[in-house]
Amino acid sequence: MQKQPVFSVREEMQLLPFLLEKYPGKGRNKVKSLLTRGQVMVGNRVVTRHDHLLGAGDKVTILQTGSVKQRELMAGIKIVYEDEFLLVVDKPPGLLSMATDEEKERTAYRILNEYVQGHNGGARIFIVHRLDRDTSGLMMFAKTAAVKNQLQDNWKDIILERSYMALVEGEVKEKQGTIKTWLKESSTKTMYVSRPGEGVIAITHYVVVEQTPEYSLLAVQLETGRKNQIRVHMQSIGHSVVGDKRYGSKRNPLERLGLHAQVLAFKHPISGETLRFETKIPKRFKSLFPVNKPPV
After folding, report:
1. H/E element, 284
2. Domains in the chain, ordered, with CATH?
3. In the annotation, is 83 catalytic?
4. N or C: which end of the chain has fewer CB within 10 A?
């Protein structure tokens, strides 16, 4: 098994310059990617911030991609952006956003709370919005209660774009469209399309990106952010999200839910700066479509 490099820090300096010194032949972008992928551990915690201040005597370990230690520390979560007010992460499928009555331990919230406490023992994070356990992709957390409240109270004005890739069953005939319905929650916590005026209004826009007779890959834009909105809306047009047994799916070629939060753009609640983050379409989604098939 390949040994993990461990470096000793001799004098106080920022993490990125330190790594560039240790890897002079790698190039700045490749060294930065070690941080982005959560491969750099200072002491016993993963650090992703370029400007993290190292002290004399610190030990910096470079974790192998996919190593047991890396998975244990971050559970596959990738930090996409971080400042003193916010965290934006790419959550893997299979990980809860926060605790439920059934599961209180293995959650994105818990892992990231421990991460920020590694920098500052009194720090904590705050849930702003959630992704379903089996949905992967971009999530934002606040680092203060004030920022959390500002985001939630002004969500419609702050969020500029929130879009998903959805892999659904069957060939969607309308190549683009808007689904607008009222949604309600049943006693079993399942959302359903209700009569007009009952529940909450939900609006979903979609465009077909790729398709075969068996599956369609959709780019989905949320105008509203209701619980299970995409899942129930796809079921309502007869094209359930793959792997979504709760909302009518009969197939599960991915062995996960076919939903990925791909794009998140927003106005920074403190600086007002426009930030936009985009992740790649999961390879397993694309694997269901012939490589040489012309686009829809």
Report:
1. helix 283-286
2. 156-296 (3.30.2350.10)
3. no
4. N
